[in-house]
Design a protein that fits this description.
With 195 residues, the chain is mainly alpha-helical. It has one domain. The chain has eight helices and four strands; from the N terminus they run H-H-E-H-H-H-E-E-H-H-E-H. Strands 1-4 form a two-stranded antiparallel ribbon. The longest helix is centred in the N-terminal third of the chain and has 20 residues. It is globular and about 50 Å long. The chain starts with a helix and ends with a helix. It binds iron/sulfur cluster. Iron/sulfur cluster (SF4) binds next to loops. The site of iron/sulfur cluster has 9 residues, from loops.
Length: 195
């Protein structure tokens, strides 16, 4: 059922490997760092969510129970939030790894990169949240904004030259993957709270 999507993920990982390589001087991602999975709302498309949840069934019973209990707890906590609810991902293990790493979403795969994004005010450079912790791209961040000119000082041409938004990947599928339908995109927890 997920064969085409799995092939797409393989090809996307290949592309992203090159993106991370091109940004190497700024990347501090390493095993044991789970900053990206600690605070977020993790937008997932229907396809990504179905793939992730199919993986849940392959985990041992204790892990499944733990994840389900955490989702239940988060949904309850979310009820008292009026603003965007940012939280630790329920799929993050106590050892700070992902329970379903091979099945993680596109947002998880692109975490840590800087990119050009569009807003109503025009194009801007979006840095990963961990820059505020002195991690990725801290060399080109002055505490308030990104100093684009500094990229070249580190031998990097520019941030990733396209959006890392899930919509971008959906709109720009290579021909061989055109039949993939990602479906609606929602923050991860919303997939569990829908009736
Ligand atoms: S699914 Fe895995 S990689 Fe993605 S945010 Fe959750 S723990 Fe992190």
């Amino acid at each position: 059922m997920f064969n085409l999507y799995k092939k797409y993920l393989e090809s996307l990982d290949e592309v992203l490997r090159k993106e991370f390589k091109s940004q190497k001087p700024f990347i501090k991602c390493q095993k044991g760092c789970s900053f990206c999975c600690e605070v977020g709302d993790y937008p997932f498309s229907r396809l990504e969510m179905e793939y992730l949840m199919a993986g849940l069934l392959t985990l041992d019973v204790e892990a499944q129970k733990k994840i389900k209990a955490e989702i239940k707890r988060l949904l309850k906590e979310k009820l008292s939030y009026k603003e965007r609810f940012m939280h630790r991902c329920p799929f993050l293990t106590d050892e700070k790894t992902c329970f379903l790493y091979e099945r993680r979403g596109i947002v998880c795969r692109t975490f840590g990169l800087a990119s050009f994004e569009n807003s109503e005010k025009g194009v801007y450079v979006k840095l990963p949240e961990c820059v505020k912790e002195g991690l990725n791209y801290s060399e080109v961040f002055d505490g308030k904004e990104v100093v684009v000119e500094n990229f070249k000082n580190f031998g990097v041409e520019s941030p990733v030259n396209h959006s890392l938004n899930l919509n971008y990947y959906e709109r720009n599928l290579p021909n061989e993957f055109k039949d993939l339908e990602f479906g609606e995109i929602r923050p991860m927890l919303d997939w569990f709270s829908q009736k």
